[in-house]
Amino acid sequence: MELPKAIAQAEARLDGDRAALRKLVNGPTQYDLASARLAVNEAKDKLYVDQTYYDYQVSKQQASDPQKQAGLIADKLAIDQAINALARITAPARDEDLAVAQAAVSAGQQTVALARQPYRPEEIAQFEQAVVASQGQLDQAQHQADASALSAARTARPFTVYDVAEARATVDHAQATLRGAQNARLDATVTAPASGTIRDLPIIVGLLVGRSDPIATLISDDLQIVINVEETQIGKVREGQAVTVTTPTGSEVPGEIFQIALALDPKTGGFPVKVRPFNASGLRLGMSVKVAVDSSGASR
Questions:
Q1: Which of 33, 57, 73, 148 could join 63 via S-S bond, C-beta 3.0 to 4.6 A?
Q2: Domain total for the chain?
Q3: Is residue 8 located within the same domain as residue 96?
Q4: Widest pairwise Cα distance in the chain
């Protein structure tokens, strides 16, 4: 690189570093404040415009809710960045920021001095070492300043819009998983259509069954007795008619007729008639009983 050009570049960089240091010491100009406030207002205006736009797009089914949320999250992030930028320029200069700026000026001065004067090789080596040392101090100060700024930002705003969006997505996923588990539990639960006692389980754990495969035999608590009435006698019975059921032990249980078949059963040659006992405590499924119909036609 030619000497004049190197000097010009070093001086320009030094001027920029000095200007940055003066801004930290003297504070922001009115132009800087106006520009930062304008950026905040513009970011808020954009959020309002995008909100209206996405509401319209979603109502017309030209955009989805996830697309709307992604766009609004980006707008809110831009607002946060603009507010943070305004806070940085209005806040008093921190010691870390001043140290960075002063280190940058010192490094720039060393660079300009090295570029202006042609020195012997050993002198140039010394200046280069000084520049390297100054740059190291600058890097260290910048690292400390960045760490302090990050810590301050986290203290002021511990959660960003992205953190909130991620947390909401985690909650939505957990709720969907819960609903899936609840549905799986419902699918694995078989509910009996009525109360009763399970008599037979023709399946075992691990066996695959289809929709039409029987998995249990249920004995209803509401016991019924079926008798066959000859066609010559069917005209004498009616629903609600009183009956007396005699068990094999000789005990009698009152009951009533509650259903009469409309057609004759060709297997038995009679009409099936269903009887409901009022007290089934002494009766069991498959038991043979005697049923006497009240010939007077009385009903209970």
A1: 57
A2: 3
A3: yes
A4: 141
Same-domain pairing of 173 and 196: no
> Any bridge partners for residue 230, and if so which?
270
Domain containing residue 207: 192-220
Please give the Cα distance from 280 to 44 (Å, whole number): 78
| Cβ neighbours of residue 156 closer than 8 Å, sequence gap 6 or more | 87
Q: What is the DSSP letter of 93?
A: P
CA distance 107 to 180: 63
Burial class (CB in 10 A: 0-12, 13-18, 19+), 5: exposed
241 class by beta-carbon count within 10 Å (0-12 exposed, 13-18 middle, 19+ buried): buried
Q: Are residues 14 and 161 in the same domain?
A: yes
In a domain, 124, yes or no: yes
pLDDT by 10-residue block (mean), the chain, 300 residues = 68 85 81 90 92 89 87 91 87 80 83 68 66 76 74 62 74 80 75 76 78 79 86 90 91 92 91 91 82 69
Question: Which residues on neighbouring strands pair with residue 242, listed in sequence order?
Answer: 256
Residue 101 contacts residue 20 (beta carbons within 8 Å)? yes
- Side chain identity, residue 273: V
CA dihedral 39, 41, 46, 48 (to 10 degrees): 160
Say if residue 18 is in the same domain as residue 125: yes
